Structures are given as structure tokens and as C-alpha cells.
Amino acid sequence: MIRRLAIIGVGLIGGSLARALRNAGAVGEIVGCGRGKENLDKAVELGVVDRYSHDVGEAIRGADMIFLAVPLGAMRETFAAMKGHLSADAVITDGGSAKFSVIDDCREVFGEVLSNLVAGHPIAGTENSGVEASFAELYQNRRIILTPTAETADDALARVQAMWQACGGEITLMSVEHHDEVLAATSHLPHMLAFGLVDTLAQMKENDEIFRYAAGGFRDFTRIASSNPVMWRDVCVANRRALGKMMSHYLNEMQELAQTIERGDGEALLEIFTRAKQARDRYIDGVLDSTE
Amino acid sequence: MIRRLAIIGVGLIGGSLARALRNAGAVGEIVGCGRGKENLDKAVELGVVDRYSHDVGEAIRGADMIFLAVPLGAMRETFAAMKGHLSADAVITDGGSAKFSVIDDCREVFGEVLSNLVAGHPIAGTENSGVEASFAELYQNRRIILTPTAETADDALARVQAMWQACGGEITLMSVEHHDEVLAATSHLPHMLAFGLVDTLAQMKENDEIFRYAAGGFRDFTRIASSNPVMWRDVCVANRRALGKMMSHYLNEMQELAQTIERGDGEALLEIFTRAKQARDRYIDGVLDSTE
């Protein structure tokens, strides 16, 4: 049971955590924190938070659980604002989609990786944002990755695990490096491909006409290019090492594919496409059908 | 009014054309042609075709309209099988997603680009295939591109236009070269990116685990990697010139993006992502919402 939960950044991710814990009876008071007054007033009105402050230090006062749902680019300043205001029994966790940078930001601000920091990443979300888009079931049966370090206290880890279990999440522990590689592969790289594709086409001479002939598959394929550019700038900068490595793997494969196409080597193309289709059908449909 | 329509390849595309024309009362008899007896028996049972033959020459006998819905890689042999069996008033059209290769195949077989050939491409489809997946409304309000050449007879073009209008399609005339470039950009290239991404991940050491953490966005993004590998081999070989050019544009942009990420240049990243998001929101949603 969490006595007082502070949520820094009350949007889809933070708001849904609040709602889920509330529904589960797993939390006492919930204090919100953010910049936008309108969004926070809405959060109170919807019963997502009990009260709020625009000041991080004020918001986390007396909190035994702190959830950081700010963009990766705002993590460092958030840690800085927390310094000197943490309760003795406070545990800190977050929802950022890169983990090395969060831990690094903590080390920069506090001079060490705090033992009560349990960096984490719920693999969940929708296309919508803001507290009004939040809902209690967002984390139900979704994978929650936690990346404890050598410094992480067992008790802190146990409390964050209990929190996500109360939300219905399926918890996996993973090293920081491995998390960042896996996410670079399955999320960050695909976003780069979609942004890059749309941008390439947008820069072509007759781009108005080109987009006019795009069919439904193109729409699905490029949906993620409509994602928040600021968030993705932050992700790229935060996870640039793992993402850079993945980009380079991928570009090597694509260079080879381009050469295979130019040679008109049907046999090699069939082999590549068959292997990809099998992998996609086997892993993706198999895995996602069982959890979605 | 079409007196006798021959459909070579009775699947989603050919079957839907048959159904649409039947519903519109725009066709007399429909003769199917293909290799699979089971599929063709089903087509008769469903009333999609009136009868069928496994022999192309036999199937097109007396037909005043011939629709080729075979894979691009089978076009040349289909033209060869038609030689000597065409009625004097026959018009030939097709549904292939590359057009230069179809016209080239015709030239190779007949020694000239036939004046009664009107190469075409309905921008429509679903994830399903086979005659059982066909439905009369597939072409309703969908774009149908026709690519007449200097050799094409006006009357032949008019008859193919009338056929697609009866199906509810919106017809656009385009040069062969332009069609192949536009489709390389909006369809063939995205398929390459998806096949390449899934194949890159499938070849990584811990690929089982990596796919397990893929979220919903990844599923959408890679859906087209589950497409038919044989069809896509044929498309790549048939459209290798235009596709090769697009791949090279794209890979140049991605190389730059990779360098921008490695530099951690947030400002440049934000610019790229914002430009892509704007293009995607403006063109794709604007265009597709009005027609889908």
C-alpha cells in the first residue's frame, strides 16, 4: 500500500497509473505535479489526483512513492528539483523509454545512483495523450520492464514491483543496457524508419500527388510518424548509443537489399521476404495475440 | 456493357472486379482462368464466374474484355498463352502494381505494344486473398490508375474506363514511368522497409525475446511484412529501376539521420520529426479521411 504517491507529469501514463492504483485500493493520497494548470485542474476534477503543485519539491513532500512521467529530456532538471525534498522512505521510479540516460541523470545530479531509484518502463500507451486520455486498465496484462542496478535496494525494487502488480502489469527485470537495446530495436528504430520515410517523400518534388496515391498499408506503416516530435527528439538523444548501433545494423541490411533489387536477384529476394514474413507471423502474431 | 469477361487469376482482385461488374449489370458472361481447381470451383459456387478453364487460350475465346490478375512474374507467360486466341474486339487490361514491366512483357511476346492493351492498377486491396475474400465494393471510391501508351487505341481506353466506372472507381490517367515512381514511393519502398526491419531483428541473437517486447505500434508498422513473398519478389524485379532510385534516396536520408542521432543533435532531430509529422498529418489523414 502506497501512503502518498507523487506523480510528476500527469498525462496518459501518469494518470493511468493513478487511476489503476486508486481502483485497486493500493494508494492513499495522490499528488500531481506539472506545468499546465488546466491539465492539473482537469486531473483533480476527474479524481485522478487529490491535489497538485507546480513545484516538484512541494509535490514530493512526504511521498513514499514518486513516479516520474516527464519527457526524457526533462529528467535531469526533475531530479535536480527533487534534491533535498525526498522523504526518508521515498522510492523513485519512472516510465521513460530509455533507461541508461535516466540513471545517468540521477548520478549527475546526486553524485551517485540512488539506492531508492528503480528505473522502469511500462510497455503500454495509446495514440492519445493528456490526463483525459488516461484509464485504469492501460497496464492490464502489459509488460512492465524494471531495470534495477547494483545500487538498487531490494526493498525499493519490491515496492515498485508491488505497485505495478496492483495495476495488473506483468513485470520483467532486465539490465539497463539490454532494455535500451531491445527498445531501440522494437520501438525507436521503427519510429526512425517511419519519420525518415515520410520526410523523404515530403521532400520530393511532387509530394502532394505522391501522398494522394498512398493506400491503407501506407497509413498504418506511417502512423508512428505522427508521434510527438519533442518526445522522439528526447528518446533519440537519450538512447543514441543503442539506437545508433541498431540503425547501423539496419542500414547495412537495407544496402544489401537495395543491391539485390538492382541486380534483379529474385531468388535472394524471395529468401529475404519469406524469412521476414515467417518471423513476423511467428513472433508478432503469436506473442501479441496472447497479450492484447 | 461487356459481353464476355475473361478473368485470368480469380482471387481478391479479379473476383472483386467480377462481383462489382455483375452487381452493376455491366457484364454478360464471366469466364475464370487459373491453376487451382478448388479455388475456381469455389468461384463458380459463389457465382463470381459462370465457368472456368485452366487454359488461358480457351478462357479468353470470344472475350471482349480480358483482365489479367496474375502475379507480375507470370505476365509474360500469360501473354504468350494468349497469343493467337484473342478475339478481334478484345481489350486487355491488368491489375499489376508495376506497369513498365507489363508493357515490356507484351512487347516481348507480341513484338509490339498492342493497341488494345490498357495497363492499369486499382489502388485497392485487403490483407486477405483468394476468391472467398472478394467483394463487390472493393473498388468503390478507390483510385484506379490507367497508364495508356502512345500505342493505346482510344476506344480500348474508353472501354476500360467504363468498366472501372461501373465498379465505382475513380480513374486517373498517368504515364507508365510516373506510375512506377509513385508506387515505388508509396507502396514498394514501405514494404522493403518493413521486410528489412523484421529480417534485421529476426537475425539478432536474442530475437525471440526482442519480439516479445514489441508493442502495438510495431505490429502496425510491420503488418506489411506479412505480405506474400512471391508477389513482392515479382514487384521488386518488375519495378527495380524506380524502386532502386527510391531506395537510394531513402538510404541517403537515413544515413544523415543516423549521423544526426550519433551527434546527439537535438535541434536537427526536432526539425526532421516535426517536418515529417506535419507532412503525415496534413497529407495522409487529409487525403485518406476523405476517401476511406
TrEMBL record, chains A, B:
In which pathway does this enzyme or protein participate? Amino-acid biosynthesis; L-tyrosine biosynthesis; (4-hydroxyphenyl)pyruvate from prephenate (NAD(+) route): step 1/1
PROSITE patterns attached here?
A: PDH_ADH
Give the UniProt keywords, A-Z. Answer: Amino-acid biosynthesis, Aromatic amino acid biosynthesis, NAD, Oxidoreductase, Tyrosine biosynthesis
Spell out the family assignment given in the record's similarity comment: Belongs to the prephenate/arogenate dehydrogenase family.
EC top class named in words: oxidoreductase
**For this protein, what is any one GO molecular function term?**
prephenate dehydrogenase (NAD+) activity
What organism is the protein native to? Sedimenticola selenatireducens
Q: Which InterPro entries match?
A: 6-PGluconate_DH-like_C_sf, NAD(P)-bd_dom_sf, PDH_C, PDH_N, Preph/Arog_dehydrog, Prephen_DH
- One Pfam annotation reads PDH_N
Which named protein is this? prephenate dehydrogenase
Q: What are its E.C. numbers?
A: 1.3.1.12
BP-aspect Gene Ontology terms: tyrosine biosynthetic process
